[in-house]
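tokens incoming
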């Protein structure tokens, strides 16, 4: 075990808080005397982490949305950097959120603190040049998708595949029967779940679209129950205001897994929720509305043809995606929903693919495996193991042998 008396964990949004909670719980179990602190939310706090910066105040998505929230993010960064420099933890563990976390990794390297990246950036999808930064700053990558292991290894980055942390989070998910009882819906009734996302910016865009789609679908399926899963990071006024006047929609708070398991079909905003839904075996339609500038940037730099993690991991189009601005319309969303609702075969095809997906992502116990690697010792800043030379620009890189 490492001799570190403290470990700093930094998660920058709701999904990171979820992933971090399992890791923090495992760290506290395996090393009870170790202080675990950093940025997270209620889940990480409940798992025993000391929260010095609240994730709910900083969660944003990329592109122009990050620019709009830059002052607040920079204030949080400066606070965490001061804590990092003062506390000098034995290791800094970063969870996703690369725009923010890679900057913090630079501060950690300067302070001589080794960095472990758990749920690393999706550089296989876009911004591939970040691999140089990761190789220079990160001591160990804990990969969560099987194909990431070869990607990082071939780039000269120390890497271990631990499996996806959602496998741990979903162990406690209810069965379909339990979920339906919890929501008070009939065992054989039609349930359509709505998941507008966990960030205010994306929910503001997606809630009106989902509300109108639900209104149109309810005209054809009058007995259908529409249940909206409100993320804990969204305030009540935003959600209830957006669905006001649509009595067919019921809002439930902090019960996403219950809604996913109970539903026959999900309308899901792109993000971690798409992978959760796939692992729970529920057919879905994935949608996302980018700003014009972000869409233009995405066309230039994104290297995969899909946005949902289910399609990306399987390497084929399993679930329908609506994300280009011309496609993200109520009409297109309703048309895709009708196609799936009217075709049991199409829904079964998704479920079969989801079974294949689950088999690829490993077994539960991800948090414990990750914690064991973090606590195992032997970590040191890459600057010590792979020295770089100052050549008047980007530091020279050396690939480990």
């Amino acid at each position: 075990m490492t001799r570190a008396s403290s470990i700093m964990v930094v998660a920058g949004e709701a999904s990171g808080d979820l992933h971090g909670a399992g890791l923090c719980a495992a760290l506290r179990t395996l090393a009870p005397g170790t202080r675990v602190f950093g940025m997270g939310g209620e889940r990480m706090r409940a798992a025993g982490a000391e929260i010095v910066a609240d994730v709910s105040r900083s969660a944003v998505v990329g592109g122009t949305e990050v620019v709009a929230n830059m002052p607040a993010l920079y204030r949080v960064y400066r606070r965490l950097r001061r804590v990092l420099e003062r506390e000098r933890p034995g290791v800094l563990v970063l969870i996703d959120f690369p725009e923010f976390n890679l900057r913090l990794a630079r501060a950690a390297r300067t302070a001589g603190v080794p960095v472990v990246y758990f749920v690393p950036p999706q550089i296989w999808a876009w911004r591939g040049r970040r691999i140089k930064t990761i190789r220079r700053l990160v001591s160990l990558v804990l990969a969560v998708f099987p194909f990431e292991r070869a990607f990082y290894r071939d780039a000269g980055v120390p890497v271990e595949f631990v499996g996806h942390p959602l496998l741990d989070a979903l162990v406690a998910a209810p069965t379909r029967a339990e979920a339906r009882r919890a929501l008070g819906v009939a065992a054989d009734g039609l349930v359509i779940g709505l998941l507008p996302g966990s960030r205010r910016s994306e929910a503001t865009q997606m809630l009106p679209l989902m509300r109108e789609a639900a209104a149109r679908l309810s005209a054809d399926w009058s007995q259908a129950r529409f249940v909206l899963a409100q993320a804990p990071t969204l305030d009540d006024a935003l959600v209830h205001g957006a669905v006001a006047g649509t009595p067919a929609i019921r809002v439930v708070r902090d019960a996403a897994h219950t809604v996913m398991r109970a539903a026959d079909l999900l309308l899901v905003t792109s993000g971690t929720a798409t992978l959760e839904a796939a692992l729970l075996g529920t057919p879905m339609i994935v949608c996302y509305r980018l700003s014009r500038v972000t869409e233009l940037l995405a066309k230039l730099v994104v290297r995969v043809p899909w946005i949902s993690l289910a399609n990306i991991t399987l390497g084929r189009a399993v679930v329908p995606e609506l994300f280009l601005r011309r496609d993200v319309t109520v009409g297109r969303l309703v048309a895709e929903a009708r196609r799936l609702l009217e075709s049991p075969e199409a829904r079964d095809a998704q479920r079969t693919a989801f079974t294949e997906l689950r088999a690829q992502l490993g077994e539960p116990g991800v948090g414990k495996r990750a914690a064991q690697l973090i606590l195992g010792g032997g970590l040191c800043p890459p600057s010590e193991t792979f020295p770089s030379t100052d050549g008047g620009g980007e530091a020279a890189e050396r690939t480990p042998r």
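note: The two ends are 25 Å apart (CA to CA).
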